[in-house]
Structure formats: structure tokens, C-alpha cells
Structure of V-set and immunoglobulin domain containing 10 like 2:
Amino acid sequence: MVGQRAQHSPVSLLLLIHLCLLHLRASGQPHPTPEAPAEEVVSVQGVRGGSVELACGSGPAPLLVLWSFTPLGSLVPRPVAVTDGAMSKVEAIASALGVVSLRNSSLVLGELHEGARGHFLCQVLHVAGGQLHTAYSHLTLAVLVPVSKPQVRLSNPTPVEGASVVATCAVREGTEPVTFAWQHRASRGLGEALVGVTEPLFQLDPVNRTHLGWYMCSASNSVNRLSSDGAFLDVIYGPDKPVITMEPLGLTEEGFWASEREEVTLSCLAASNPPSHYVWLRDHTQVHTGPTYVIARAGRVHTGLYTCLARNSYLDTRTQTTVQLTIYYLPEGQPSCAVHPSPEAVTLLCAWPGGLPPAQLQWEGPQGPGPTAPSNVTWSHAAAQLPSGSVFTCTGQHPALAPPALCTVMLWEPLGRPTCWSTATMGDQFIMLSCEWPGGEPPATLGWLDEQQQPLGGSSSSMAVHLLQAQEDLAGREFTCRGTHLLRTPDPHCHLQLEAPQLDVAEPRVSVLEGGEAWLECSLRGGTPPAQLLWLGPQQQKVDPGTSGFMLHPEGAQLRLGIYDADPAHHRGTYQCVARNAVGNSSQSVLLEVLRYPAPPNVTISRLTYGRHRREVQLQWAILGPGNLTGFLVQQKASALGPGAGAWETAASDIEPESRGRRLGGLDPGVLYAFRILALNHHTAGHPSEVKIPADPPFSAYPAVLGAAGTGMVVATVASLLVFQYAARHPETFPRLETPTTTPGLDPAQETTDSPVNVTITVTATP
């Protein structure tokens, strides 16, 4: 009967069997027939989104296969699919498991859902031995979920150093067990694994600056492995105590040093996040902002305390470091070497004061190196061991100086002998004895001795000076200057004897003509100290170089006095030449006679007439009597008869002695002048001539008459020509003159004639 229904209505039969089987299994427990084999439970794994095939055992070809599904936590099976080999049926609820299909008796689940996790039951109906038998297959499906991409979460992305930070690796889904791994990569470096951290959460307590950087985690299960993006942990710290460096590097116990005039770079670094802001202070005064402070040209004013202030702007925290910068500078100039002699030894001195730090000095001589000391070093030697020409060198070294500085001294004796002389000072109140012996190293020592060879004052190097109060009893006394030098024996000396001056004059009597030139000569003979020469005039006044009419001309031991344009009234008399020094004086007299020239002859004016327009005069004169003359002098003045009478003025003075006439111009026609003339013999003038007033020149009519006659003739000729020309052009104006016909018997006087026409031509001649 079952076979018939299967043939006629297979689907209905399948459903009926399906319902029966479900009913038999409603309790969830199998009820196998006695011939049914024992049930098997198979565990199957699938991956979400993937596919899995559930096999329904093995055996003879089934008549009917029924798949059911019981979710985890449920006891009620749910039909999924059924097939009789020819036809299959998948229930709608199977879509919750994925894409469900049947392949023979196997259940294929594609695009697997997590809802497919649970128990699957495969019931098989087959015929064996002519009887229906059932078989059951139990399968447990585990749906595995891949881990999702993990995310790193930091409890505080910007913690302050010392705080606590929790890092979490979050995975949204994934089938357990999930394994975690962490990796840390510094901001400027390669990543490194954090060994021993396998949990999704780890704690940094306390956090420090080494924890700064990127953090990544990876999650893995039996399905897959994924890594997260990095999360940056920005640890805030600092600033640490700044570290100051300098270029070029120069270290001292207090800090740094640099040479004067070189470029100095100060750098400051304080570890901080965020980076520090830097401020530079010099002696508590801000000079720069930034990590690097450059001094382009270091000077002494740059010496001081330099403080670097570092500030973290996020935390508003500050730290600072102070260093001392010392600018080293050289001493001024170069080392100086000197020698100080003593009777039996010589002391070498080397000095180079100043500088920072002081220069280190060391002597070196012919026998090798000597002592060393800062700024000043002294070295003593026995004089007997030092020949002339010994060389000693002082070497100066300084940190700011590359090659060392040197000074050298060579010992040698001065040449020649001492030289003595004397001079008067302060108006001859004192006598200065001087002695010099130049050269030598060390310089010679000089001292003055009196006549008893007793020292006068102290001794000195190279030059000795001693002052004596001037008095007359010093004349004739002798003084000695003695010189000593460690390389010279015996001691040389020079002598000096004081004496009053003596004078000589070339001529005690000198004559000169008036206006001439005279020279008075005076010579100094002896005198120590050197005497002063001067001339006194006739009135005992001192003749200075700027005195008018005089000229002083010194020549060695002579003093010449020149008198120019000698004048008897001013220059005649006795002159004295005086020589003075601090121990006495002397004088010599010279008589100067100024002689006059003889008087020239008298002069008389022979003619004095005005020229044209009265602006000049013609003067002629004559000599009266014998005599010498060198020229003439013409004088003029406004005449007393005129309105402008005045004093005599020179009209001409450069007239040669041979001249006897002179034309004088530049006169005012409105002024009446008077003239006179004098003869000159050098500076001697003769008696003036008589005073005369210029006369007008005599009148001459002959030239005027000749001029008038000539002019009249020219005018008459021109007038006649004009009349004749007029008559020729107008004949009717003038009557024609005909010869009268004489009639016999008539008296000529009775004849009738025309009245005559009178023509008058007047010619006027103007001179």
C-alpha cells in the first residue's frame, strides 16, 4: 500500500513520511528500529560567509532524506530540506542558515550565517530486505567568525610623563580564542614588538618619554589574523635642564672662553615635548630668543653669565642653565724686554702686563731656558759671564695667540766716551750740567763729580743732569762726569769748566752816509755755559729782530747788526754788544756816525703854462749854480687865490737828474694850482724854487684867418655853381643883354632901354 501511494502521489507521500518522522522525533530522541545502527555525532566547522557540506552517512540509496536543524539552546527541531532523490524541498526558514541546497543526500550550506550554529539531524528512509528502515545522522555545526580589524584605544593620547595610560586592542567580533600581539614604533625609528604582552589591554604605569610613539596591535584566531592602524601616544615631558655647548670650544673651570674678535656660537638644548622655547640672558638681561645665540665679533663686553631659559608651553614649566663666558684678550702691544745693571750682575726684566688671562713669559739665553712667570719674569746673571753681544729672548704665550710673541735684548757696550755740556735755565738763575753717553745695552750709568771728585746728586742712565745755582764764583771751576758700564773698564769720563764770556768787535767806529746801510759785527770768544749775544741801541734799548730799520744776523759765534736807510736823527750814536751767561757777562761799544750828503743846487721855474682845456701843465726849470744832484721833486697845491687852497703835495718825484721839463696831468680845470720844484741829492733836498701859477698859452690869429679864408672860398664856390645852374634852367628869369642900335641924330642917352635886374650874392666866412 505504501508503494502504491509512492507511485501515485510521491510528494504527498514524502510529506506524510516527513511528518511521521518528525512526529517520531518530536521528543528529540531517536527511536530506531531494532535493525537500526547506533547513531553517530559528527562535529563539523564552517566559516561565516563560506560554505560547508553536511554528509548524511553512507548506505543503500535512500527512499527519503530529511534534514532538520535544532539551534543551540533549543530542543525543537526545525525541518530544513527533504528529498526523495527525484525531487527536493528546502524550507523557507533555511534562509536563516545561509544559502541551503541539497546535493544527493548531503546538505550544502553556502554563504554560511552564524545562525547555522547548532545540531543538524539527517533522517534516511531506505528499503532493506523488503522492509523499510530508518537511519539517523547527528551533526554539530560550529560556525567560525573571522576576527575584525582591531582598533587601538588609548585612555589618554597625550599623557604627562609619570601618569598612567591604558592601551586597549578592541576587536568587534571573532571566534574565540582570539590571540593578541602588540608593537611599538618610536616617532623616528623602526617598530619593535612588545614581548610578553598578549592581552587586549596593557597598562603603562608610569608612562615616560620612551613610551612616546605609535602603538599597533594584531588579533588572530583559527580563521584569520588582522592588524590595527597605529595610535600615537604623545607623552608630554620636560623641559629637562638645558645643556649649553659652544663653538669653537674653549673650556675653563667656570665655563667657556673665547678669543676676542672671533665668532662665538652658543647652543642650548633642553629635551622637551612639545619642543622648548628658548630665551638667552646675559647678566640677567635678555639678549636673544631661540636655541642658538651667535656673537659675530666677540669683545670684552661679552664677558659675563649666560643663562638659557627653556620653557614648555604646554605644561608652562621652565628650566634654566647658567654658564660663565670669558672673552680672552691679548695684552696690549708686545712683550717688552729691559736690562737693569748692577755693579756685579745684570738683571733681565720681561713684562707684558694686561690681557686675560695674563700671558705666560719665559726667558731663554745662550746657556738655555730661564725662569717663567705670568706677566712679569726676572732673570739675573753675573756680569763676568756675559760677553758683549749676548742675546736673550723672552717668549710670551697666550691662549688667544697662535704663534708666541717675542722680545729680544742684546747686551753691548756703548761706543766712544761721555760728552759734557752746560746750559743756563730760568733767566740764568741756574746752570744745568748735562752729560750724555748714548747707546749700549744696558745703558751706561752717568754721574757728576765736583773738583774734589765728590758726587753731585745721584746717577742716571745714558744722560746725567745736575743743577747749580748761578753765581760769579763758579767761573773757573771744573766738574767731571764719570760713566760706568758693566762691559767697559776702566770707567770713561769728560770734564767741564765754567767761564764768563769774552767779546770782540770788528770795528769800534763805523761811518755811513744818510740813507745808506751799515753793519756792526760782534764775535763771542769763550764762555761756559754758552752765552747769549745781544745789541743795545744808542738809547740803551735792546734791538730785537723785528725792530724797524734794523736786522740781526747770527752766524755761529758772531752776531751782526744791520742798519738800513740810516737816519742821523734815529741811528747815530754808540751801540753796545753784550754777552751774558750764568757766571758773568761782558760788552763792547761801537760808534755809528751817519753823514749827510751835500746840498744840491737851487732850481728856478723857467716856464709854467696850461695845456689844452686846463687839465695839464707844461713845467720847465733851470739849475742855478754848481752842486751834485740825484733828481727833482715837483710839488703842487691849490693856490691861495683859488677856492681850494691847501698843503703841498708831491706831483712828481721820479725825475731823472738830467731832465729839465715835465708834463703834469690830472688837473681839475675848476681849481687854480700853484707849483714849485726842489733839487735832490739822495736824501738831502735843496731850497724850493719860487712858487708859480700856470699861465694860459699865447693866442695865435694866423691859423684862424687861414682857416676862415679857406672855408669862405669853399662856400663861395659852391654858391656860384648853384646860381649858374639855376640860371641855365630858368633863362626867362634873367634879362637878355643885347647891343643897342644907334639911330643917327639921337643922343644915346635918350634911347629907351629896359631897367636892369640887380642880383646880390653874400658870402660869409666863419673862422
